[in-house]
Specification:
- By secondary structure, this protein is an all-alpha fold.
- It has one domain (2-224).
- It is 76% helix and 2% strand.
- The protein has 7 helices and 2 strands; from the N terminus they run αααααβαβα.
- α5 (123-150) packs across α6.
């Protein structure tokens, strides 16, 4: 019974994780208040850490480092949510956002490492690349939010960024990040400063490069499978 559960988890873990990330992206704008959204994101990160570690059993040395990065992210979130000094709020917000970035980067790299090691093209490996793609979008969304924390004019938005609720602003930046990563460019949200434009350009290049790498890995895995 336990083996069947382990087999089902190994076959469907990244599909389940992808659905969980999509559920977070859909639910985040509907949750009122800053701290529930941030706690939901930290819970999502914890689940993603556990799934990524299970897919990379050789990451024994990185296990503690990855958990430590997640704990730093939680500490940054708690500092931002329960800050008692209003004048220090931008610094707490920066710590909260930037401590999440390395966690997302390592998790995305771990998913792609899992796909690269796979000898067969499976449904789980396909959804591992989808999950890594969504994590890259969340990573850049955190960086864009950091820019808005210090300069609300970093982006041209259809609304006033300074008075926008934090949970809605996070959803807005997640939307812009995913659109930029996919190189769609609807034009409703635009980077307005030099730094924001360079980051958006860099993200667009990563999106194209990531697609090329994923296609190459899939072709290699398909070509290595035995033919009947």
């Amino acid at each position: 019974m336990s083996r069947s559960i382990e087999r089902a988890f190994a076959e469907w873990r990244f599909l389940s994780l992808t659905l969980l990330i999509c559920a977070y992206l859909l639910a985040a704008p509907l949750i009122v208040g800053k701290w529930p959204v941030q706690m939901l994101l930290e819970g999502l990160l914890l689940v993603t850490v556990l799934v990524t570690l299970s897919a990379n059993p050789g990451w024994q040395k990185l296990r503690r480092a990855l958990v430590a990065l997640w704990l730093m992210s939680v500490a940054g979130t708690l500092l931002s949510v329960f800050s008692v000094r209003p004048d220090w709020k931008p610094w707490y917000r920066t710590i909260e956002l930037l401590t999440t970035v390395p966690v997302l980067a390592v998790l995305a790299a771990g998913m792609l490492a899992f796909v690269r090691r796979a000898r067969r093209l499976t449904l789980d490996s396909i959804f591992a690349t989808v999950a890594a793609y969504l994590l890259l979008a969340l990573l850049f969304a955190q960086i864009y939010l950091c820019l808005l924390t210090w300069n609300p004019a970093s982006f041209t938005l259809p609304f006033d960024a300074a008075s926008r609720p934090a949970h809605l602003l996070q959803s807005d930046m997640s939307y812009f990040s995913l659109v930029t990563l996919a190189t769609v460019g609807y034009g409703d949200v635009l980077p307005a400063t030099h730094l924001a434009r360079m980051l958006a350009m860099f993200q667009a290049v990563i999106g194209v490069f990531d697609l090329a790498v994923v296609v190459a890995m899939f072709v290699g895995a398909y070509a290595s499978q035995p033919r009947e």
